[in-house]
């Protein structure tokens, strides 16, 4: 093993810490310019997908946890520190009452549900890497894509738990999640996509149903759990 390979996990962790610091700074600037908290929160996961793409490259997957710990530490500091920067970060990472997905969770950490969902995906990665990798990509890419389509407001489905969700959002989520899960399995096993698509499509539909019936942002960790269990059973 070369010296670079031996220290690659440390290098990835340092790069992640630098990237998270930049994300926090950009979040504060965007909030001070008037962007709603929900928009900022759903813009962050696609950026974190760059880090998720590194997961299969880690020599020791235990190095995922320092990165997750740094992210959670930022949310703790935003929740409790009184300095203006941290209060602005809290405002950026917490939905306001005029956001369509608002729920009264002011006692929780900012980005709590997303952090919990990412931790669940990381746990799946520790147990079954191909599952956790696909689930984390789904969380960072498919979930935000569905959110932004829902914001357009076309063909609302009127679910009691999520009246703002739309048919377009759910269709895009199902297709994108199925493809991401297929690709994750292909990365680890080199298997063709076609035999995998039915199983991943069923998994994506379970995630879509979870997204519809679990209230508030709790659907994020619930979807990671239900989709992982579905993949495991299939």
Description:
- The chain has 234 residues and is an all-alpha fold.
- The protein contains ten helices and no strands.
- It has helices spanning 3-6, 8-32, 37-52, 64-80, 84-92, 112-127, 129-152, 167-189, 194-213, 219-233.
- Helix 6 (112-127) packs parallel to helix 10 (219-233).
- The longest helix is centred in the first third of the chain and has 25 residues, at 8-32.
- The termini are far apart.
Q: Terminal Cα separation, in Å?
A: 36 Å
| Overall average residue pLDDT | 88
Q: Give the topology string: H per helix, E per strand.
A: HHHHHHHHHH
Shape: globular
- Tell me about the largest β-sheet: none
What is the subunit organization of this protein?
single chain
Radius of gyration: 18 Å
Strand content: under 5%
The number of helices is 10
Query: Which bin fits the share of residues in helices?
Result: over 70%
How many beta-strand runs?
0
Structural class: mainly alpha
What ranges have pLDDT less than 50 throughout 5 or more consecutive residues?
none
Brief write-up:
The chain is mainly α. It is built from ten helices and no strands.
Q: Would you spell out the secondary-structure blueprint of this structure?
A:
Blueprint: H1 3-6, H2 8-32, H3 37-52, H4 64-80, H5 84-92, H6 112-127, H7 129-152, H8 167-189, H9 194-213, H10 219-233
Helix pairs in contact: 2-3, 2-4, 2-5, 3-7, 4-5, 4-6, 6-7, 6-10, 7-8, 7-10, 8-9, 9-10
